Here is the input.
Amino acid sequence: MQNPTQPVQNSMKPGKWLNSSCKMCIHSCNTRIHITDDGIVNKVEGNPTSPSNNGRLCPKGNAAILRHYDPARFRTPMRRTNPEKGPGVDPKWEAIGWDEALDIVGRELKRTMDEDRRKLLPAINNFQKLFLWAWPAAFGNANYFSSVGNFCGGGYHPMNGFVHSAFAAANDVNYCNYWINNGGGDGFSSHLHTAAQANHVAKARVERNMRVVVVEPRLSIGAAKANEWVPIRPATDRQFALGLCHVLVSEKLYDAKFLVKDTNAPYLVGPDGYFVRNADGKIYVWDAADGCAKLWDDLDIKELALEGSFEVEGKTCQPAFQKFKDILAECTPEQMEAVTTVPAATTRRIAREFAKAAQIGSFIEIEGRLLPLRPAAYNYYRGAQGHKYSAMANQAFKLVNFLVGAIDTPGGHVGATLDDQMQEIRGGVGQIVAGDNGMMKTAPHQLHPEVPFSYPPNETHLMGYFPIGVDPGHLTQHTLANAEKFGLDYTPDTMLLCHSNPLWNISGSREKWYEMMRAMRFIVAIDILPNESNEWADIILPAHDLMESWNMTMIEPPHHEGMCLRQPATPPLYDTKSEEEIFYEISERLGILETWNTILNFVNGFHQKPELLLEPNRKYTDRDIAERKGLLWNGKGLDWYVEHGHAVTPRRPEKWYRPWDGMRLHFYIEDIVRARDELRAKMEAADVPIRHEWEWGDYQPLPTAVLDPVHLEPAGFDLYAITFKDIQINFGESIGNPWINDIVFKDPVHTAVLLNAATAKAKGLGDGDIVRIESPYGSIVGRVALSEGVHPDAVCVSNALSRVATQNTGVRHGGGNFNELLPANLKHTDACSGQPETVAKVKLTKLAAMPPGIAAGNSVFGQRRTH
Amino acid sequence: MAKWGMVFDLRRCIGCNACAVACKQENSLPNGVFFTKTLSEEVGEYPHATRTYIPTICNHCEDAPCERVCPTGATWTRADGIVMVDRDKCIGCGSCIVACPYDQRTRLEPEMLQQGLFGNGRLTPFEEQGLTRFTVGTVVKCTFCHERVDAGQEPACVATCPTEARIFGDLDDAQSRVRQLIQEHRARQPLADKNTNPRVFYID
Here is the structure.
């Protein structure tokens, strides 16, 4: 018998619990951390006091300790001694002191600053410290080298800004009874506080019998748990949604009262795509009862027309709803079936079930407020919206919800703010502002203010040409390769990486990215662990990890709000600094301390409480910033947060449901047309040559069923490659953690390329065969596994297979990076939103054996034992 | 005295294996060793295919074959029904591994304790403080987190399960949630034909 006074279970050993928050993905589930009397972190659990994650954690959250104790962590500032740079090339790091490292960084960045501030390519990606993303603004630069945003929602975030004035959106699990999930893992395996959402959605499914319909090319976790899996050909989700809209409209299953009263659907649209206005700029509507046009705010309107064609102010015009109806005439379920492969009968049935479940006309009283109850909602995310015509795709999904009145209402599809405190920098996130002609002001900029137009372009990713989009980081490859065409009058030669791995997350040819990296005069990386990108650095500045630092954040918790504390569980294990300290040190050396503090005050919203303002010429710690963010949220100091861990509460109904009450929502997005024309005028005035190739057709005020160009690749490329993540590898930074590896690499879903069994048979391929997967843009290698849970046209590549050789020996690499298959060019980028295509047309070629370089060593396909 | 048991609600389980990782951190398990894990299997033919997720754990059988075959009495059952292994008595003969119909027992091999979680032959401080509970050559398995249970807490896997697919409680208490779920859902025991009378039940 063991001595009963010596517990063997980690959480029962003598020690203390500290409240904190998770950082194993971008979100911030509330945790408590157990530290032994010897100072060892030996257990992380969900904080039971959190109404969001309810004491629960996903597998990644459970694996945080091994990030902390990862032997590959950067332990001290380091200088490269090997002048040769390349993927997998040992930088031959030499440890140096902080002063020397910071002085080198300061000197090199100062040189860049003096030569041309635009020559810095920053990639700053810590989502829990979003304020750091603004540092390049202090440097004097709006470049952005990464694809954060593009690979979650280049079109998603702006569309949420257009429709909800919010960063994200979620189906309201509190009341939803019919949940369509299209190309997203929300509620099952990814996105929006996964452990929290999985908890709430499972309760709704099991305790309230919420029906779940999952539309996806691959049988995901959500599809496996759904009442119905609807397999769909990749990159045709928009057409499926339009098929649903067709049925809802043609069978009059829509919420006409909502459309008339709460949206701009009755506003009259002229032939130029703009609303028809009088001389004072007031928009006309049509009164069907009186048979004449009236101004939208005319008190004598008897019956607003949604349909018809009229003549007003000498223009032929139709209500926005009629415009959509005209588009839908060509979107019958039968027509859409030819694209999506979803049987027309299935589309019709789902549309009818959805409309019935929406209970159009019903109300619910919440906290004394009578609200429309619409317990049916269409949710979607990366897989569905990550296509060339992303803005149109996003709007098509939103319109399914619009038609049944399920926008921002109990049970419906509701906007979720990112961090309510960062009001101004995000174009008013969480702020509902009245706009033009009774409509809510749109807020498509959810990550930073609009970057001014310039020619020659100041940004290598052309952000000045995306007035309503998210940074298309991948375009840097395209512009550098075609510098003359784009009029690029400088070449970036300096890179600052912070908590970012663009060489992993960005689409396009690795070789071309490598060429760009080789051409960099100086690269500094602020990070914790080696990865594909920071192995190119000249200087490593090692940062504290999630167990060693302070933070205060709130990142898209859909059903909850409030600041989440992170506090150090242990003193730093190594000679590291917080990211805040590092940026202050660099800023001081560059002489931009005052600017940086001004920006920090702005992006954190400290100016809202002057006593919180950072002084211009002081340097602050991570603790100082966290304390101010906590004070700004609820007036509580760090002691309060240390005791409670978080200020998380359910979203206030007045902000969660119809915060725009009294304003009209944008069923028809005229701002997209306006953005197009304003950009075109600027390009004309500046004589920008690329305007002739610019994808002007991407800007549509209503979505159409036009095919994404990925479908038009040469005929030999007969399959569609998609990539996916499950909950174990949700967001990045997972592979390499032994516990995550231990569950991921036992799962055939993550160790092979999934192919529909019948498709494989027709191609003469069998389980275990090695194939080259080749797109028009690049190729990777994989091992085939046959599956009945895959659309016949799809080749599914787990994100766990996407790593390539790195200095981190814990990371098992696969057969190449999936993003290699994707084009990084304008043709496959949504000019409206910046979203790149994320599906590739491919062909498979059987290989005799795994190429030796992949089979050897630390590969998923190697012979390495799992223990 | 309570009789502890567990119910797995297969409707809720999403196969995420948060349970498995929580168990690993709670119990300092080496790579490749699991006291609980969730199996997944694709069933049906396209397009009517789905995937099932089946959590598995030591069933703490009332009539435990592992205990019956143990030659040294190392495997024993507490009064509350938790089946334990006394590492001081275990000789690592492996009889219990063969006898367990559920494949829930693992003999600790030297490299499991020496190789380290990061596979570099070195132990992290986390492992150094945790691995002392193990003896090479002995057999280990889930103990329903007996120390947590004795302190009035739920097992680590239950506490962390994002979807609350694991419900832990007293099988002798007619009012307990586990008993209610078992009765309401005609719960099934794993491999009931083995007559081991598991204290773990599945509902769907």
In short: Chain A has a mean pLDDT of 94. The longest helix of chain A spans residues 98-115. Chain A has three domains: 78-141+450-553+563-647, 153-442+665-698, 709-855.
